[in-house]
């Protein structure tokens, strides 16, 4: 399971932030160089045909599909996650024209909420966004709801929704589901087909290690993809894009959800990153991540009893991260980074650490605990330099 040699990690650094940006896969540099030199450089525009650039979105979609429990031919890659959420939400609303409620979790990732708010304003049809605490969502699933829009794993606490149960309940009242898999794909078992999920989207730069700005993926249940007319009708989603017809005609199945030109170089890096998952048992990977997370949590809490754990104790109810709250959380994280242990911070007071057994083992966790002890016992976090907020936290 441990594939540390597949990553180009700085010597001496314990990287606990793969839930925000995955590290560089060693093969990615050569893959991008090949795409630039042997393809773009040598082939020029012929690369679209001779190097298969135009097929990248669907070919990579088929590589991601097994990692999220989707069937071949149902996932495509391209654009950003925010755009994909907007696209999926619009598709779901179009399939439930008589309903006006979008149900989501209060504290869902802000971009998802912004996309919903923007779509509501653009449609001007009286839709409302109803954001409730996670515990109130089941009771709020009524026949008013058009779409249940949730991030499977909460970006702050790491708490995980029960996709199967909530999807079944939504369908029981005639609602559809849209799942954000940003903190799920590549980290834990996802079963879109088995759960009968309607739509899903996720990014590829976190646990899938596709690199900063790597494109998102989008899933639509096959029966939906054949009848939905995308709100973002891009030229590559046309049934015959190179006919350059003035009017849009949706392509078949997932093809209609393509929008713009594929980011060839980013997709080359992602393709190399996905090689790492060949032969990986995602369930076993997640089980090991839970063990590492518990080891880190126990150690950190012993060093600093004032930490308040936010991540659920039940392994079935969490993703592959551990999160704590502390009034000095930002400064603690910055001091820890200076000691070579990289985690991150989320407002207002959350210390957040991702556990990825592809490149982390128990020894790394023990080293992180030792360095955290140095930060706490030496009050290193009290340095004013660690209290100045960076643009990216």
Automatic annotation (TrEMBL):
Catalytic reaction(s) noted: L-kynurenine + H2O = anthranilate + L-alanine + H(+); 3-hydroxy-L-kynurenine + H2O = 3-hydroxyanthranilate + L-alanine + H(+)
GO biological process entries: anthranilate metabolic process; L-kynurenine catabolic process; L-tryptophan catabolic process to kynurenine; NAD+ biosynthetic process
MF GO annotations: kynureninase activity; pyridoxal phosphate binding
Protein origin, superkingdom: Bacteria
EC number per UniProt: 3.7.1.3
Pathway given in the UniProt record: Cofactor biosynthesis; NAD(+) biosynthesis; quinolinate from L-kynurenine: step 2/3; Amino-acid degradation; L-kynurenine degradation; L-alanine and anthranilate from L-kynurenine: step 1/1
Keywords for the protein's UniProt record, in alphabetical order: Hydrolase, Pyridine nucleotide biosynthesis, Pyridoxal phosphate
One GO CC term, this protein: cytoplasm
Cofactors, names only: pyridoxal 5'-phosphate
UniProt signal peptide: none
Subunit (UniProt): Homodimer.
Protein family according to the UniProt entry: Belongs to the kynureninase family.
Biological function: Catalyzes the cleavage of L-kynurenine (L-Kyn) and L-3-hydroxykynurenine (L-3OHKyn) into anthranilic acid (AA) and 3-hydroxyanthranilic acid (3-OHAA), respectively.
PANTHER family, per the entry: KYNURENINASE (PTHR14084)
Name of this chain's protein: Kynureninase
Taxonomic source organism: Dinoroseobacter shibae (strain DSM 16493 / NCIMB 14021 / DFL 12)
Record lineage: Bacteria, Pseudomonadati, Pseudomonadota, Alphaproteobacteria, Rhodobacterales
